[in-house]
Specification:
- The chain is an alpha/beta fold.
- The protein folds into three domains: 10-102, NAD(P)-binding Rossmann-like Domain (Rossmann fold), CATH 3.40.50; 105-290, Mur-like, catalytic domain (UDP-N-acetylmuramoyl-L-alanine:D-glutamate ligase, 3-Layer(aba) Sandwich); 299-438, Mur ligase, C-terminal domain (Protein-Tyrosine Phosphatase, Chain A, Alpha-Beta Complex), CATH 3.90.190.20.
- It is 37% helix and 18% strand.
- It has 16 helices and 17 strands.
- It has helices spanning 21-31, 48-54, 69-73, 89-96, 104-111, 125-138, 172-176, 204-216, 231-234, 261-277, 281-290, 318-325, 346-355, 366-376, 388-398, 420-443, and strands spanning 10-14, 35-40, 61-64, 77-80, 100-102, 115-120, 143-147, 165-169, 187-190, 223-226, 243-245, 299-304, 307-311, 332-337, 358-362, 381-385, 404-407.
- Strand 9, helix 8 and strand 10 form a beta-alpha-beta unit.
- The longest helix has 24 residues, at 420-443.
- It is globular.
- The protein starts with 9 loop residues before the first strand and ends with a helix.
- The model has no long low-confidence stretch (mean pLDDT 94).
């Protein structure tokens, strides 16, 4: 641990969660000799898998179904789940009582012996991180990929060496509570910055400041790769303390297997980071040409009855969905909606009007988004429906052979689904069911 010692300390892990970060942090700290209490508002049934994963670890106490004030008043260290706001009353209580605040990702960075590439941005950070890791691996470097992509790397620490590289996708939530005294990535990549998560951050300025924190702990030997074609990020050059690298020229990027100009931009950033690290041009060319994409990001699900189905469930911002719409030349039917994060949806509505054959808008944001799209697309085929399944049926009934049906929600999933992966699985299940019906009809 670089900025705090944990042996013998009373540690409260706030938020066990379902994605492994809380479990990994609790196990790691207990193995380091801390006296660990885990607490979560969700009940035991919701957290069943995480509780099973925690079994066998020397955890002092586990309390679910709510939080106890005493677990925060007595904590010397508080590990906070990224989704918890800094102004949460219990976080303030712990801080007032003298607790040091940290998170799973900071625990990892502080203990990691390898060099770290940190990738953040409003859109494209997952793909850029994965592309960067692919180039490093192709160049012969032992590489680990993690962070906001899912799955903690804390358990992998014993396998890592100083010669390895780690590529971390970092969200604004993770960066918001990154302490100044903690270890920061040696290489920082910022893809762009547009309004997002304004239901969590108080203002866009707060959100942008969270992204800028990736540059805050760098030094003269650090590397920063900025996408200066983004007007917001272009103003951040003065924050760079080390070497500044801009994206590789587009003509140097090979033909990609994944669609969209936005993915070429992601590739340019990944190539710039890899080049600054010292990777060969050959490794960059081969890795990018071979790259096949991540799940839930314009992922081709299959063709049924002449219809092409794409899962872009990871598109949780209007900008991501706009990029998705611009990736298709074929007639496109859009499934969008979900939980409103407070983003400006008007540009998305205009893009739907300009590029989509039709759109089925579902979830809690449906009425708001429908009004905007209808205003821009008065005679277009646009509907609002309660569920994704209803929207799917509407699109299938109207699309023709050669058309694409694309789930690209532009919103968070939390109104109807556990997370974006759960939403994607629902979409894939609907495609499978449609394929089964199509086969049965063909046999009649």
């Amino acid at each position: 641990m670089r900025h705090m010692e944990v042996r013998g300390k009373r540690v409260t892990v706030m938020g066990l969660g379902r994605h492994g970060g809380g479990v990994a942090a609790a196990r790691y700290l207990a193995e380091c000799g801390a006296i660990v209490t885990v607490t979560d508002q969700a009940d035991a049934d919701s957290l069943r898998e995480s509780l099973v994963a925690l079994s066998g670890s020397p955890i002092a106490d586990v309390f679910v179904g709510g939080h106890r004030a005493e677990d925060f008043q007595s904590a010397e260290i508080l590990v906070v789940n990224p989704a918890v706001r800094l102004d949460h009353p219990l976080v303030r209580l712990a801080a007032a009582a003298g607790a040091q605040l940290t998170s799973e990702i900071v625990l990892f960075a502080d203990a990691c012996p390898a060099k770290i590439v940190g990738v953040t941005g409003s859109n494209g950070k997952s793909t850029t991180a994965a592309m960067t890791a692919a180039i490093l691996e192709r160049d012969g470097r032992r590489t680990w990929l993690g962070g906001n992509l899912g799955g903690s790397l804390l358990s992998e620490l014993p396998k890592m060496t100083a010669d390895d590289w780690v590529v971390l996708e970092l969200s604004s939530f993770q960066l918001t509570r990154w302490p100044r005294e903690a270890r920061y990535p040696e290489v920082a990549v910022i893809t762009n910055c547009t309004p997002n998560h304004l239901d969590w951050h108080d203002t866009f300025a707060d959100y942008a400041q969270a992204k800028q924190r990736l540059l805050a702990g760098q030094h003269v030997d650090s590397i920063a790769v900025l996408n200066c074609s983004c007007p917001q990020v272009a103003t951040w050059k003065h924050l760079v303390r080390g070497k500044l690298s801009e994206p590789i020229a587009s003509e140097q990027i090979p033909k990609l297997a994944i669609p969209g100009e936005h993915n070429r931009q992601n590739a340019r950033l990944a190539a710039a980071a890899a080049r600054a690290i010292g990777c060969s041009s050959d490794a960059m060319q081969r890795a990018l040409a071979e790259y096949r994409g991540l799940p839930h990001r314009l992922e081709f699900v299959g063709e049924v009855a002449g219809l092409q189905f794409y899962n872009d469930s990871q598109a949780t911002t209007p900008e991501s969905t706009i990029a998705a719409l611009r990736s298709f030349d074929e007639p496109t039917w859009l499934l969008a909606g979900g939980y409103d994060k407070g983003c400006d949806l008007a540009p998305l509505a205009r893009e739907i009007a300009a590029r989509a054959c039709g759109a089925a808008l579902y979830g809690s944001v449906r009425a708001k988004l429908h009004a905007l799209v209808r205003s821009a697309f008065p005679r277009g085929e646009v509907t609002q429906c309660e569920t994704l399944a209803e929207g799917f049926a509407w699109c299938v009934a109207r699309a023709g052979a050669g058309d694409a049906i694309v789930l690209s929600p532009a919103c968070a999933s939390f109104d109807q689904f556990r997370d974006y992966a759960d939403r994607a699985e629902c979409f894939k299940r609907l495609v499978r069911e449609f394929a089964t019906r199509d086969r049965m009809e063909a046999m009649r």
